[in-house]
Amino acid sequence: MKKFSVVIAGGGSTFTPGIILMLLENLKRFPLRAIKFYDNDAERQEIIAKACEIILTEKAPEIEFCYTTDPKTAFTDVDFVMAHIRVGKYPMREKDEKIPLRHGVLGQETCGPGGIAYGMRSIGGVLELVEYMEKYSPNAWMLNYSNPAAIVAEATRRLKPNAKILNICDMPIGIESRMAQIAGLKSRKEMRVRYYGLNHFGWWTQVEDLQGNDLLPVIRKHVAEHGYIPKVAGEPVEASWNDTFGKAKDVWALDPSTMPNTYLKYYLFPDYVVAHSDPHHTRANEVMEHREKNVFSACRAITSAGKSSAGHLEIDEHASYIVDLATAIAFNTQERMLLIVPNNGSIINFDPEAMVEIPCIVGSHGPEPLVMGKIPLFQKGMMSQQVAVEKLVVEAWIEKSYLKLWQAITMSKTVPSATVAKAILDDLIEVNKDYWPELK
Ligand code: NAD
Ligand code: G6P
Ligand code: MN
Q1: 299-310 pLDDT, tens per residue?
Q2: Which among 126, 112, 151, 142 is positioned nearest to 277, based on CA atoms?
Q3: pLDDT at 233 over 90
Q4: Cβ < 6 Å from ligand 1: which residues?
Q5: In a 10 Å sphere around its CB, with 0-12 CB exposed, 13-18 middle and 19+ buried, how is residue 51 labelled?
Q6: How many C-beta atoms surround the C-beta of residue 141 within 10 A?
Q7: Active-site residue 263, yes or no?
Q8: How confident is the model at residue 1 (pLDDT cuts 50, 70, 90)?
Q9: Backbone angles phi, psi at 288, to 5 degrees
Q10: Angle between the 377-399 and 402-411 helix axes, to the nearest 10 degrees?
């Protein structure tokens, strides 16, 4: 069986150790000959890499491993680029969340003005990775889950239309796991779904078991009462995420015939989100105090003891969709997966040039999107507004246009007026000087 070479871009990510453990667990179906880490922050990456090196030496010494900040070393001789960079890291996420809140607007990693600010930082970073891949390993595929995936995907559609890049998100997978649990199934893989929308902005229209039995009635009944919080608790979930899963109950009520993505809460209940936010302590603070701190201290402990048992790192089982995607391409498995792809007629009454999240059959030539048909006015209206925001952000980045970015922030359903949008924009420009193009 062929063995693959992978580079993880954003080697210093809090998710990297979990992904390494997940890759090790999946070696039978996705055999590896080499793993490389690439990051532009050598110090941060080294802490993660040294611990991963120990884990790899213990569990799979035959896999070559290296970590580097040199693009040529990183991107030469690779079959897959797994990309999860965060341009500006957590301190900039904190600003994305806190600046809008100062103006009474919600602060979120990928939604509203915060997501737009993050998009303006990410576009250049991800395009640079695509260029390195095309230069040093032109036959490779990039599996990108760097956020904000909607804006990044639109930027690659516009600027790198022929690049072998697939944009993907784990939120539908997380929600489907909860649906499976609610329906009494062992795994979401026992379900087949129809879903349409934009990234972090979509709806399920069909959820069936593999025999074709409709699971929506039982899921609907549960969500109407409890949102996506299953009766029997699974792994512990942080309070802020639990609130999001619970709030799905109210999001669902706006269209009881479908099941919503949890991220719609930010667009449909922005007042609720603001009222439940602490402007001095946002999700970025929670992550820095918990996930980031825990992952980095576990890695330091493993490195100083020289053995993996010295630190507790959790396998990212949910991230096995990355292996599903890689094997679909590598072995032409024709797996059905939700991906972010050009609409191109899949949603018949929607912009063919929008990047949409829909089921695709994935094989060695990439994704073949399935037809999702005609969508109702409510979803179409919401999606048209949001896709215009995402396109305006990418145009603002390309043209270095202040006006287009002001229009984008103004048009976000999370922002009440052009006055507020301008005030937020001016504050965001101030703190993003090192990352955004200078706007005219
Ligand atoms: P993190 O800050 O811990 O890690 C990101 C790493 O990227 C850092 O080590 C940083 O130095 C590096 N980096 C930043 N800019 C870079 C550049 N231009 N080139 C190379 N490396 C660069 O962040 P995290 O919380 O672990 O998240 C990583 C990314 O994964 C984020 O974009 C996050 O939103 C995304 N993510 C996406 C999904 C999804 O559903 N699509 C799920 C989970 C995480
Ligand atoms: C989900 C989304 C990701 C997002 C993450 C944020 O997994 O699909 O796109 O980055 O949540 O989680 P965090 O714990 O960093 O707030
Ligand atoms: Mn996501």
Answers
A1: 999 999 999 999
A2: 112
A3: no
A4: 9-10, 12-15, 39-41, 44-45, 84-87, 89-90, 125, 145-147, 149, 169-171
A5: buried
A6: 22
A7: yes
A8: confident
A9: -65, -35
A10: 160
